[in-house]
Amino acid sequence: MIEKIKTWAKQLKRKVFVLYFAYKDDRTPWFVKAFAICVVAYAFSPIDLIPDFIPIVGYLDDVILIPLGVALALKMIPDTVIRDCTVKAENRLQNGKPKNWLAGSIIIVVWIAVFFWISSVIYRHF
To answer: Taking the complete model, does pTM exceed 0.70, yes or no?
Structure first.
């Protein structure tokens, strides 16, 4: 079972890299690029929308949101682009995963805003 999970995770990582190169490809439609950028930015972000330390729910984004986003984006990309980008992705996997600090920063800002909003609600009630 653990081997199956490891294999699934490696395949997902490859698919994220395919998206990474596909959104840069001129043959990819603009609306697919926009969606793929969001999926790749979130997948490469060092910070999750739902922190992993929250029991069960913390891993939902890693197990559900990212694979769902990747699958939807890949269905919208032309097959020729996917084939070309798969080759590029295999080469890039040799060098490791890039980090997307912009997406991480946006998620931090969202959490700070939520914190201040909750604080203001609590402050008004007491």
So the answer is: no
